[in-house]
Amino acid sequence: MSPLGFGLSIEPQLWALIFVMVRVGAAFVAAPVFSAVGIPLVVRVTLSGAIGVLVLTAHPITPPEHVFALATILAVAAEALVGLALGFVLQIAFAAPMIASELIGTSMGIGFASAIDPQNGKSTPALGQFFSMMLTLLFLSVNGHLILVEMIVKSYVALPPGGAWLKPQQLENIAFFGGYTFLAGLLLALPVGFLLLCLNLIVGMISRSAPSLNLFAVGLPASLAVGVVALALGFPAMGDYLLVIIDEGLAATQSLVLG
């Protein structure tokens, strides 16, 4: 076969692979774990290509005929929207520990303690980094990353290319799922937050009965000590609820793909 004929035979396949990689790559950009700053761009592109090959072998994907056309631009935008939605739903669930860390850290008096989070490269509370790290480890331990890849592959059946625009009901479900972040954050912080609230009530009553007492010398160390003990006692239950958050995020992703 001539080189020209070989080039003509491989070009449609390469265009189909690039077209499939748009949805997969967009999901990896928005999804937790895969979007971490520590993962090099080359690794993400390679994973997108490998999963794209699996998608092409499992489902017959027909990309748009003309690369530079309005219909092609709309199709690529639809693919990117679906991929971003799949990753963003999980990202919403992963934001719950940050809300819990803000509530607990403020009550303990360590709300000012923050550092650069290696996951997203932004400044986050130190307690939030701990919760985020534990949530990531639990997500990997239950094979959540593999379930996400499976949902991406299944999305080509429920949302085939060319008709992949999300319906208003699906966008509404994503918006309403954002409220779950605040609910999960409050429930995650409830065991420690309740004990710290009781401590603040006790310190408030002491300040009324003994106004000359220096509350900063008593209240801050007491809040810190009670917070650390409450975290140690309540973390088994908090770990179980972190698994519930992961299940809810994966269930919301499955609902977006399969309805």
From TrEMBL:
A cellular-component GO term for this protein: bacterial-type flagellum basal body
Membrane topology value: Multi-pass membrane protein
Family the entry assigns: Belongs to the FliR/MopE/SpaR family.
GO biological process: bacterial-type flagellum assembly; protein targeting
Name of this chain's protein: Flagellar biosynthetic protein FliR
Record-linked NCBIfam families: fliR
TM spans (from-to): 14-34, 41-61, 67-90, 130-153, 173-203, 215-235
Function summary: Role in flagellar biosynthesis.
Membrane in keyword set: yes
